[in-house]
């Protein structure tokens, strides 16, 4: 890489760094959605992952300042459904990604500066390329971790939802109303799934929203199709106790069957992964046995 290209790269990196530092110290511009939420009522509680460390504080402040400018962008999107499922603040996650990218930009230039001080430094073009590549990878790592955790959370939600549907079916068979069945079933369990359902149904009752409409909205926000199916069943069957009981039991059985198939598939995949190293060792052992014989034949 020529000196001109190196200068351009580091000038661009320095400009981005100065811009982000300026945003860190500037007063944050409130997002329209956040302002409307504050005017309409208290926002739902979020389990913030921001700690007391310097990096967490920097990520939180930087995310608050940058997020209003990027939340409506068509070229940059956050996994909002996954973040809502995990109760993560999108602004803080964005700040974590930016801080990780900034650290990635500084790692290799700093190491090269230390090596240069000892007289063994590399040309600055190589650290520039490595720093940009590292920053890009570190910027994407939080998204990968969030998607992994959200996938596990959805699987856990589907597993608990089958039990919840059974409880709703038992309540409906006992002559309890549709709304009361959904609310009482959510109050039985103490896992995060039941607590989340209880919270959403409580908020729906306070606002006068139908519980199945609230469940449908939550299913779209969190990407939980099974919860939407439950809402559709409760909405269509209404007060038909026997009909809704059979439909709910069938839905719960279908969820358990799908979970069992998924677990069997995961077990088979894990077994195949365990067999691959053994097959490689067996092939290596056969090659070790054949090498002396081939040496004698060819010699």
TrEMBL record:
Chain ranges of the Type II secretion system protein GspF domain: 165-292
Membrane topology reported for the UniProt record: Multi-pass membrane protein
One matching Pfam family: T2SSF
Subcellular location: Cell membrane
GO cellular component: plasma membrane
Main location: membrane
Bilayer-crossing regions: 6-26, 98-118, 124-141, 278-297
Alphabetical UniProt keywords: Cell membrane, Membrane, Plasmid, Transmembrane, Transmembrane helix
PANTHER family documented for this protein: INTEGRAL MEMBRANE PROTEIN-RELATED (PTHR35007), PILUS ASSEMBLY PROTEIN (PTHR35007:SF1)
Name of the featured protein: Type II secretion system protein GspF domain-containing protein
Organism: Rhodococcus oxybenzonivorans
């Amino acid at each position: 890489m020529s000196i001109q290209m190196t200068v351009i790269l580091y000038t661009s990196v320095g400009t981005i760094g100065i811009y982000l530092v300026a945003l860190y110290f500037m007063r944050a511009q409130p997002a329209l959605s956040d302002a409307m939420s504050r005017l309409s009522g208290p926002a739902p509680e979020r389990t913030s992952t921001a700690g007391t460390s310097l990096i967490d504080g920097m990520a939180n402040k930087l995310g608050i300042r940058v997020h209003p400018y990027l939340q409506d962008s068509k070229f940059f999107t956050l996994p909002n459904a996954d973040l809502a499922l995990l109760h993560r603040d999108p602004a803080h996650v964005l700040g974590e990604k930016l801080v990780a990218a900034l650290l990635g930009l500084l790692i290799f230039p700093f190491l090269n500066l230390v090596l240069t001080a000892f007289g063994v430094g590399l040309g600055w073009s190589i650290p520039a390329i490595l720093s940009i590549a590292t920053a890009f990878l570190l910027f994407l790592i939080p998204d990968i971790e969030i998607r992994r955790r959200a996938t596990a959370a959805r699987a856990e939600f589907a597993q608990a939802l089958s039990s919840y549907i059974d409880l709703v079916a038992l309540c409906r068979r006992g002559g309890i109303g549709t709304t009361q069945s959904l609310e009482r079933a959510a109050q039985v369990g103490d896992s995060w799934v039941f607590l989340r359902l209880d919270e959403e149904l409580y908020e729906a009752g306070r606002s006068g929203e139908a519980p199945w409409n609230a469940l449908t909205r939550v299913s779209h926000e969190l990407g939980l199709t099974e919860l939407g199916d439950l809402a559709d069943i409760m909405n269509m069957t209404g007060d038909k106790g026997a009909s809704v009981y059979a439909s709910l039991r069938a839905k719960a059985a279908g969820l358990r069957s799908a979970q069992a198939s998924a677990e069997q598939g995961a077990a088979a995949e894990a077994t195949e992964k365990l067999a691959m190293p053994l097959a490689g060792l067996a092939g290596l052992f056969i090659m070790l046995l054949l090498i002396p014989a081939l040496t004698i034949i060819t010699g």
